[in-house]
Amino acid sequence: MDHLAYDIEDFLCDVSFQRYCLGNDDADVVYWSRWIAAHPEKRPQLEKAKKLYFELNGDITDQHFSADYAAFKEAFSKRQVGYIEEEDSHEPAKVKLWSKIIVAASIVFAIGAGLWFYQTALHKGGEATIAFSTNDIKPGKNIAIMTLGNGQAINLSEAKRGVVIDAAKLSYSDGSSLEHLSEGNTINNLEKIMISTPRGGQYQVELPDGTKVWLNAASSISFPASFSGLSRRMVELSGEAYFEVTKTKIKHIPFVVTSNGQEVEVLGTHFNINAYADEGSVKTTLLEGLVRVSKKVVIHPGEQAQFANGQISTSKVDVGEVMSWKEGYFQFNNADIKAIMRQISRWYDVDVRYEGLTPELAFSGEIQKDLSIARVLKILNKSGVHFRIAGREVIVMP
Question: Is this prediction's pTM over 0.90?
Answer without folding.
Answer: no
